[in-house]
Amino acid sequence: MLKAVIVGLPNVGKSTLFNAATRTRKAEAANYPFCTIDPNVGIVTVPDARLGVLQKIAKTGVVIPAAIEFVDIAGLVKGASAGEGLGNKFLAHIREVDAMVQVVRCFEDEEIHHVAGTVDPLRDIETITTELVLSDLEAVQKKRASIAKEAKRGDKQALAEEAVLARLEPHLNAGKPALTLALAPEEKVISRLFWLMTDKPTIFACNVKETDLATADQNPHVQKVREYAQHHFACEAVVISAQIESDLVDLTEEEAASFLSELGVTESGVGALIRATYHLLGLCTYFTAGEKEVRAWTIQRGDKAPRAAGVIHSDFERGFIKAETVAYHDLVNCGSVAAAREKGLYRMEGKEYSVQDGDVLLFKFNV
């Protein structure tokens, strides 16, 4: 399962967003630093309107959406890499995830304390980035020292690692995230072995006030974060209102839609955040649909049919024979698998087929 960590300075709305995304009250949200002590972990379902349509076609009562695991850790502060605040205890949790969501405060409110005294989202981003870079720099230096002897002996793996580490160290020392270092594909494979925090794909979540959500595009803080994210990280910045998301937790889908409509927006920020995470990581969704259940499965874009089958069970990949396939829109237009088959839209695909987003698949295998 995809795993993402929510990071940011204290009191920027991380725990409120976590509670809203996971529809729980697991994370304490309070107006003081370090109200989160132990990391909170929750499962977030990926919103996908196609599941309801497929449910009607398959005539099943069971729908299982794709899911993301979110981890909420304590707010990081200047000096975290050296143990300030809750420091290194929580930096380790970032190394274990696939992606990072950095929540940035983009609203003014004298009643909500800011750890730096003033609201400046770019300063906040640079504070977090600096601490992560410093921690990664230390990790790279330790790794170089640990493989030095093997590299001198001519060990191929050690030499390959040393070559990448030698490029990473000056880059990090210049204050730049590992993700922004241009590496060849084979070098990127080696780089991932080091579990660097700044090598994680990152999304910025601009937290705005409830009253500013509909006009967030005009918010100067949001504009600055978007420009910074694109220029320095080549990534997206999405707008959320953690407080609104928190208010939506206890509402039905109909009530939530009505509430958002009154605010002048059409969608929850959490939905946009999840879609941005999928896009960032190059993920897509395929479906299985039958009388037993309709289910969404997450794969990397470009994955071949056997790899996609392996997401369900390793036996499916090992014994893959073929995949019966129909595109979502074709199935919906036809109304049933039988009708799609009659029109020649239901087809057999082999091992070299690249699964497309929205494919409805049935795998044939033998082990």
Explain what you see.
With 367 residues, the chain is an alpha/beta fold. It contains 14 helices and 12 strands. The protein has helices spanning 14-22, 50-58, 87-94, 121-152, 156-173, 185-191, 220-233, 242-248, 253-263, 269-280, 305-312, 314-318, 328-334, 337-342; strands at residues 2-7, 40-45, 63-64, 67-72, 99-105, 202-207, 237-240, 283-289, 294-300, 320-327, 347-349, 359-365. The strands form 3 sheets. The protein has a 6-stranded mixed sheet with strand order 2-4-1-5-6-7, with helices on both faces. Strands 3-9-8 form a 3-stranded mixed sheet, sandwiched between helices. Helix 1 (14-22) packs parallel to helix 8 (242-248) and helix 4 (121-152) runs antiparallel to helix 5 (156-173). The protein is flat and about 65 Å long. The two termini are 25 Å apart.
